[in-house]
């Protein structure tokens, strides 16, 4: 549906002519007071032109007392991390009421560079939902890993004024900002006055003050109420995150009240089709927040109006005359049970998705290993004395910096399944070198075999965790044959896999098939003894050297607090 001329909108709003669409007999959630108000909603083109009155319309949707709330806005995500294309993501989450999503394509950008931005901006112009793009600010995120590409300020400025672009995506090079790194300063200056998204885990005090002084205004990395409270008190909008791995909502929602809701919004960051099928998307976050004691008006305000205001989207977030007609009809307010979705004045159905122009994927055949790897390539030499060990924290991407005395055989450090310590390697896959980083990780629960993934934030080298070096090597080599993805190997045999041939990050299959394959993968991982609910996304965050405290890249183990290789 397109924007109609102003005189037509006025005529339909005053009732001088029938509205294009009328939602009849709804109960509107008033985001000002929290009251439920009876009345019709009149829509002209993509714009609401009347509420709380009786309207005639050329097309009538019978609400029959259902509750109308504004469309939900996911304020930060990476479509690639949903493992599906933007077109499948659109089809997957829009029926859950997500009418606007703000994506950062830096996962694909770290593999393909400018080609990723071109693809996402083109896709964003063609999907049914309003998919907005924040341009990837840190490609690569650090100099402590091998990335597939590099984006300069000049590369980003080219897309700055595109209508689907909001601003600059999560600025995760916190030391670069605080210490005045010239490349960081150039990007910040180029986007001064526009939205700049933050990424500042555990940042407090004067360091936070310095970071905010650069013009950064939002953050999705707060993991405690105390951290979030300081950030909102200093003017940030905190994006409460609940994804497939990072689950911060329960820790932060005690702060979310009707009074504070203008300073909080929701985001998923990374949520895959299996979680969406089982739990939902932003509708799940709203439902969970209300179950945790948040008043419904605060939850729905944060999911719509507060989110829109934080990102400068001044045309949406309320059901009111003159606002964009993004409307969700609910069967139940507290349970956030979505029954119908209207996106820019159009009822969301299969025909709407079928009418889109779908563009061809890019980044096929992106896995480039100089040669097949063997068990010896996975071996970590050393005496095993007080070896650094990455300690997983379920539900978080922050890790512990542990040390342990490890068994050694023939000069090679061994895994120790009895203490839940496995081997982990990161294999460079962009064809620039033959680097392999080697280390140890605690928390997967593996008793045998190996898991491998070409999704490895942010540079997306191949990350493999396992007990046996031969199984680890077989897993890495298998991913080159599939163009990337996830794989489970036991006794040299592939037990289950999910090919992700688009940049080694996304499937070219429908989201329903991806969800089904993820079920099989999880079961196969459990067969190795894995105790994690979401082992592959947890694995994907081990090579992320901008999140404390200990990580691993293709260069080796990284002490993130010191930003130094061990």
UniProtKB/TrEMBL annotation:
Enzyme Commission code(s) on record: 3.5.4.2
**Superkingdom field:** Bacteria
Give the Amidohydrolase-related domain ranges.
67-348
Known catalytic reactions: adenine + H2O + H(+) = hypoxanthine + NH4(+)
Cofactor(s) in the UniProt record: Mn(2+)
Q: Which InterPro entries match?
A: Adenine_deam (IPR006679), Adenine_deam_C (IPR026912), Amidohydro-rel (IPR006680), Metal-dep_hydrolase_composite (IPR011059), Metal_Hydrolase (IPR032466)
Q: Which SUPFAM superfamilies match?
A: Composite domain of metallo-dependent hydrolases, Metallo-dependent hydrolases
User: What is a GO molecular function of this protein?
Assistant: adenine deaminase activity
Q: What class of enzyme is it?
A: hydrolase
Q: Which UniProt keywords apply?
A: Hydrolase, Manganese
Domain Adenine deaminase C-terminal span(s) in chain numbering: 396-562
Q: Which family does it belong to?
A: Belongs to the metallo-dependent hydrolases superfamily. Adenine deaminase family.
Its recorded name reads Adenine deaminase
What high-level taxonomic lineage is stated for the organism?
A: Bacteria, Pseudomonadati, Pseudomonadota, Alphaproteobacteria, Acetobacterales
